[in-house]
Amino acid sequence: MLFIGTKIDLNKKLTTQSYWEDYYSDNHANKQHIINVCSFYDDFWEIFIDSKSSVGKTLIEIGGFPGRYLSYLASKFKVCPTCLDFNSDRQQIEKSFEVLEVNRYNIIQEDFTLYKPQKRYDYVFSNGFVEHFEEYNNILDLHNSYLNKKGRLMLMIPNMKGYIKYYKKLVDNENLKIHNLKCMSLSVFEDFAQRNNLKVVELTYFGGFPFSVHQKLNLIQKIIFKIHRLVFKFFLNKYVHKYPSKYFSSTIIAIFEKP
User: Assuming Cys at both sites, which of 4, 116, 209, 217 could form a disulfide with 221, CB separation 3.0 to 4.6 Å?
Assistant: First the structure.
């Protein structure tokens, strides 16, 4: 287990601050877009946050920029949100809260690997964060240090193993390189729970096949992409959603509770 005060080697990050600032340089604070993206996970939000007692409870998102998940959850469950992210652009986060009519929030602009938490929270969340570090077990353990007793932690990471790995090697290899595939296994999260004495509430693969790409494609790559998009979007993804697996599902979702 990694204890607070232990320094993580910053050179072991697979991305940089400038990468994320460029990645989210456009304005993402569109109300309907936020709702469309976040409501896709409504079944899991209901497991994560107890709507009967959520009003006034505290929620922090690790790597929360540009704030769409935080603003959605704060609006839906009336929790008090905090965004922790080293991104220097506060305006997009603030705009996300504004369009969802969330007036009370906190923004911490710090590096998660160096920042020492000043308090603990009832709910802790991160999405697409853990897999960008070589020392992913240390990063997972740091999440636990933010969690109150009886609190809940929800982690979401992409799944790039199985058939997905070979597809991405062909058409999305640059994106594949900045993700640590070693953490993309349910056993990693089972070990994390045991290491930190957490109860596993939910642990599953979720979502359809991720055929989208993040790079320019040559002719052959375009053909590969279009075939996969056609086959999965219009035919196979209904089956993948119904029967999630490590071979084809896009996401790993884990929810834990602290005794």
Answer: 217
CB 128 within 8 A of CB 235: no
Nearest of 57, 66, 56, 60 to residue 84 by alpha carbon? 60
pTM: 0.91
Report pLDDT digits (tens) over 60-101.
999 999 999 999 999 999 999 999 999 878 999 999 999 999
The DSSP code sequence of the chain is -PPTTPPP-GGGBSS-HHHHHHHT-S----HHHHHHHHHTTHHHHHHHS-TTS-TT-EEEEET-TT-HHHHHHHHHH--EEEEE---S-HHHHHHHHHHTT----EEE-S-TTTPPPSS-EEEEEEES-GGGBS-HHHHHHHHHTTEEEEEEEEEEEE---THHHHHHHHH-HHHHHTS-GGG-SHHHHHHHHHHTT-EEEEEEEES------SS---HHHHHHHHHHHHHIIIIIHHHHHHS--TTT-SEEEEEEE--
- Whether 173 is in a domain gets the answer no
188 neighbors 203 (Cβ within 8 angstroms):
no
State the CATH number of the domain containing residue 253: 3.40.50.150
Number of domains in the chain: 1
Residue 36 is assigned to a structural domain of this protein: yes
Question: Is the residue at 17 inside a domain?
Answer: yes
Taking only the tens place, the pLDDT of each residue in 22-33 is 544 566 689 999
Token pair for residue 247? 């071979």
